[in-house]
Amino acid sequence: MSIDVANESGVTTVDEERLSRLARHVLDAMRVHPLAELSVVLVDEEPMTDLHVRWMDEPGPTDVLSFPMDELRPGGPGRTSEPASSAT
Predict the structure, then answer these.
(1) CA 8 and chain centroid, separation
(2) Domain regions of the chain by residue span
(3) Would you report the helix, strand and coil content of the chain in percent, each value rounded to 5?
(4) Residue 3 pairs with which residues in a beta bridge?
């Protein structure tokens, strides 16, 4: 499983490695397919506002933008019933 955390916010106290470990723990617990990819980008208010308008056609900033990954949940086409933690 690929997890990428990028801090583009300018905040220097962000523990990117800890965020990555937390994300891996959550994805493993959710049994997300081991070939899944996760990207987390931390941004300031201005870039978040731009992204919110671009992707959701909503004005102003938001706390989180996320995109569905239903096709990677266990139990359906292209899905696995094996825990993701068994992958390397």
Answers:
(1) 15
(2) 2-86
(3) 35, 15, 50
(4) 38
pTM above 0.70, yes or no: no
Q: Rounded distance, CA 26 to CA 87, Å?
A: 15
- Tens digit of pLDDT for each residue in 47-84? 999 999 998 999 999 999 887 766 545 554 444 445 44
Residue 42 to residues 16, 19, 31, 67, 73, Cα–Cα distance (Å): 10, 11, 25, 15, 25
What's the CATH superfamily of 2-86?
A: Metalloproteases ("zincins"), catalytic domain (3.40.390.30)
Residue in the block written with tokens 């955390």 = 5
* DSSP classification of residue 85: G
Interatomic CA distance for residues 27 and 85, integer angstroms: 9
H/E segment holding residue 7: strand 2-7
